[in-house]
Amino acid sequence: MKIELWLNGKTEPYVAESCERFFKRLKHYTTFQLVEIPEPKRKGNTDPRVLKQQEAQLLLPKIELGDYLVLLDEKGKEYASEAFAGHLEKWMGSGRKRIIFIVGGPFGFDDTVYARADETLSLSKMTFSHQVIRVIFLEQLYRAFTIINNEPYHHA
User: What distance in Å separates the CA atoms of residue 79 and residue 143, rounded to the nearest whole number?
Assistant: First the structure.
């Protein structure tokens, strides 16, 4: 099973080092890839609906029929780390080819993306930048694998 995290824009250098730390750790558990999707170009006061539609046009063609799609979204369901690990284990056993986690743009997702999603997940009631969320999500993904494998990281 392959796990991917899709994000808007490039990872800034100040975040890349922390991400790399978790990439190396995740290699022991799964095939993982970070996919940077180009951000739609903003011109002046572009309508947020137009930006979401442009983002959907970039995302949806890349999602295959057998993919399990989880949107990271403020309206999603929140889980404690142990519960997230349980869901991750269930998703991995679903027979799907890939689990794709997507962080949306600043205005959320277009309705067509919500309609395609299998789940929506919120990492917190707080709002984080698109750069910081990379590290937070990767740490939680790594933590989930250590919980699944009964390793001490979770309690360290």
Answer: 13
